[in-house]
Write a structure and sequence with these properties.
The protein has helices at residues 24-34, 39-48, 53-68; strands at 72-78, 82-87, 96-101, 106-111, 118-124, 133-138, 145-150, 154-159, 165-170, 178-183, 189-194, 198-203, 208-213, 219-225, 228-236, 240-245, 257-260, 265-270, 277-282, 286-291, 296-302, 317-318, 325-328, 346-349, 356-360, 369-375, 381-387, 393-399. The protein is mainly beta and 400 residues long. It has a domain at 261-400: 7 Propeller (Methylamine Dehydrogenase, Chain H), CATH 2.130.10. The strands form seven sheets. The protein has a four-stranded antiparallel sheet, with no helix packed on it. A four-stranded antiparallel sheet has the order 2-3-4-5, with no helix packed on it. It has a four-stranded antiparallel sheet with strand order 6-7-8-9, with no helix packed on it.
Length: 400
């Protein structure tokens, strides 16, 4: 038996200030153990529980980060800032994206598989200065339909092919508008939150199913659980995230869980892999992760993403195939973790450990704030809505 190798006395290179730590060493150690094994046998062992789920999750994260590190960018520049991004849900339309702009303009585009270029498919003309599109959602059942919530106080159903539109919801008072929308996975009802703290729910025919105040202040986001259309998460300026069972919702006190935050939570999102985690990001410096089924607080990650009036609110999101958090960085000198010259990256985090897995910084990203970062449903394309406080805005598509 050959003697054991000793540690090499090599000097340790100092890492750059902003180079994130990653899980590669641990993953490579694991890969060394399995590299000579049959992959089919390995997958069979994973399904039977003979391979640790922790190690399996690490491998998935490693694969995602490796792919992201090879991303290149396609840039589409706009005059007004981007306020909403939505990828199409259908596998046949997985490269189709909708982009909402501050002036009410909506662009439908597609990333071509072969040329890797961004192609315009259709547009909906702008409404006017300040009439921002706050939310977009493709219809789960009819591929050419898309819902939008606008500052003009309407939720509208638009047909991408013929350009026709119909109003689903309209404002009751002049100082109210809809801020968020979601559609059930079978498309049989739509929900929307408004600035009055009121939740609206209508069926496909426009019949009102629910209309009542559930928060004391403006609703910032609504999301239905992908695996249970009766489970709803809402966030509000009242600094709470509330979970609801839509079968029993009646008023603002009929929630199943209320999660208090230090600052207004801009978004609450269920993990896409198993829907067993809930991600929230506030308007200041906290990312929180809650674990099902009792929604116990799993982790709080300090991260600079404060709200500023001239940028789209920075919101965290999930990767679709692995439990990885994605969020844009807006360095804050008031935080103790701040370092001079810190770049404005797109950060990738492990939700359980709060560890930085990767920081994406490509052409121009370091100069802009990436407010919206959404992967398509297969995870091979990342769309980013970037901007600055000087009103420059761009849609950037990253893909390998």
């Amino acid at each position: 038996m050959p003697p054991k190798r000793g540690k090499r006395n090599e000097p340790q290179l100092k890492k750059p200030k902003y180079e994130p730590e990653n899980d590669v060493p641990a993953h490579l150690t694991f890969l060394e153990r399995v590299k000579n094994k049959n992959i089919v046998n390995f997958l069979k062992q994973t399904q039977s529980g003979n391979v640790s789920s922790v190690i399996s999750d690490q491998i998935k994260r490693w694969a995602v980060i490796k792919q992201v590190s090879d991303f290149s960018a396609i840039q589409e520049t706009f005059i007004q800032r981007i306020t909403a991004i939505c990828w199409h849900h259908a596998i046949s339309q997985q490269n189709v994206i909708a982009v909402g702009i501050k002036n009410g303009y909506i662009l439908i585009g597609k990333v071509c598989q072969i040329t890797k270029e961004f192609k315009h498919l259709s547009t909906f003309d702008e409404i006017g200065k300040g009439f921002a599109i706050y939310a977009l959602k493709f219809d789960p059942q009819i591929n050419e339909n898309i819902y939008s919530a606008c500052w003009d106080g309407s939720v509208t159903l638009k047909n991408v092919e013929n350009g026709l539109s119909s109003v689903i919801l309209s404002k009751t008072f002049d100082n109210q508008w809809f801020t968020s929308i979601d559609v059930s996975k079978d498309g049989d009802f739509l929900i929307s939150g408004c600035t009055a703290g009121r939740l609206h729910m209508v069926d496909r025919n426009g019949k009102i199913l629910f209309n009542n105040i559930i928060h004391t202040q403006r609703i910032l986001s609504v999301q239905l659980c992908p695996r249970d259309k009766n489970l709803l998460a809402t966030t509000s300026l009242d600094r709470t995230v509330k979970l609801w069972d839509l079968r029993y919702i009646k008023d603002k006190s009929s929630y199943t869980m209320s999660l208090q935050h230090s600052s207004p939570p801009a978004v609450a999102a269920f993990s896409q892999t198993g829907c067993n985690q809930l991600l929230t990001s506030d308007q200041y410096k906290e990312i929180r992760v809650y674990s099902a089924s009792n929604w116990k607080l799993l982790n709080i990650i300090e991260h600079p993403h404060r709200q500023f009036m001239h940028i789209t609110p920075i919101r965290a999101s999930w990767h679709p195939t692995s439990d990885i958090i994605i969020i844009g960085r807006y360095p804050d000198p008031s935080l103790s973790s701040y370092t001079e010259g810190e770049p404005r990256t797109i950060d990738f985090f492990c939700p359980a450990m709060g560890k930085t897995l990767y920081q994406l910084i490509k052409s121009g990203v370091s100069q802009c704030i990436s407010s919206i970062n959404i992967f398509n449903n297969t995870g091979n394309i990342l769309a980013t809505g970037r901007g600055t406080i000087f009103s420059y805005a761009a849609l950037e598509i990253f893909r390998s």
